[in-house]
Amino acid sequence: MSLDPLPDVITGPVIRAALAEDLGRAGDLTTDAVVPADQRATVAVTAREPGVVAGSDLLAPTFAALDPAARVDLARADGGRIGAGEVIATVSGPARALLTGERVALNLLGHLSGVATATAALVEAVAGTGTSVCCTRKTTPGLRALEKHAVRAGGGVNHRFGLDDAVLVKDNHLAVAGSVTEAVRRVRARVGHLVSVEVEVDTLDQLAELLADPVDAVLLDNMDPGTLAEAVRMVDRRMVTEASGRVTAETAGALAASGVDLISVGWITHSAPVLDVGLDSVPER
């Protein structure tokens, strides 16, 4: 699949903050001592294991932030599958910039590619069911837009980006309101007509109460496949149905078989294993 890169207004601050954190107060003491200022080099960014690439568009601005003479030639764009030992990108330019930016570039690329790879595994597990895999707000602080972009690179879809772009009434909101009906009443009295509303329910009784005044979507939380199937039958397409709760590649298929529209997964952003990527020197010819 092909994704448009995120704009610099989103990625730039993340890259600059990461570089500033690494460079500290005195810069790269090791590289500046060992590598002559006029030394040039070419390196290959390589996958050590198979996966799905995400974060490749961050390579060029990361190295260019250290020296605008750095050049990146992408071999795999975001969303592309990569095999062990295959090259994601070749980077050439001032050696100091390449070595100083290495860790930040690989940290971002490895983490985001890990998110994409984990997402792709779940997407594959529900293939052919019509169910989509989506992320949540359980993201690394400061990296939400990048991680959600990586979810799309892996074939998933995005849930809301923040508290301000949709309403999601969860169990603690229901506890304060006293009932599903009262929570929905308060929401309808407060938000505009263009704001989507979703309500989380834990039981079929709560779902039945919600169906008396349906909203846009219902989050069916921690239901077993049998209960989930009954919930989907009750909704009968009057709302978008979303399942969540301890989803793995092993359990996703059974949940999707219920006919639910979406399966939301938090760990694909906050706990996805990093894809092992490295930076190797390319000998001059």
From TrEMBL:
InterPro entries cross-referenced by the UniProt entry: Aldolase_TIM (IPR013785), NadC (IPR004393), NadC/ModD (IPR027277), Nicotinate_pribotase-like_C (IPR036068), Quinolinate_PRibosylTase_N_sf (IPR037128), Quinolinate_PRibosylTrfase_C (IPR002638), Quinolinate_PRibosylTrfase_N (IPR022412)
GO biological process terms held by the UniProt record: NAD+ biosynthetic process; quinolinate catabolic process
Enzyme class: transferase
GO cellular component: cytoplasm
Pfam family, one: QRPTase_C
UniProt keyword annotation of Protein transport present: no
Catalytic activity: nicotinate beta-D-ribonucleotide + CO2 + diphosphate = quinolinate + 5-phospho-alpha-D-ribose 1-diphosphate + 2 H(+)
Domain spans labelled Quinolinate phosphoribosyl transferase C-terminal: 115-280
Quinolinate phosphoribosyl transferase N-terminal domain segment(s): 28-113
One of the record's GO molecular function terms: nicotinate-nucleotide diphosphorylase (carboxylating) activity
Pathway per the UniProt entry: Cofactor biosynthesis; NAD(+) biosynthesis; nicotinate D-ribonucleotide from quinolinate: step 1/1
SUPFAM superfamilies xrefs: Nicotinate/Quinolinate PRTase C-terminal domain-like, Nicotinate/Quinolinate PRTase N-terminal domain-like
Keywords: Glycosyltransferase, Pyridine nucleotide biosynthesis, Transferase
EC code(s) of this entry: 2.4.2.19
Homology family: Belongs to the NadC/ModD family.
Subunit organization: Hexamer formed by 3 homodimers.
Known function: Involved in the catabolism of quinolinic acid (QA).
Protein name: Nicotinate-nucleotide pyrophosphorylase [carboxylating]
Source species taxonomy: Bacteria, Bacillati, Actinomycetota, Actinomycetes, Micrococcales
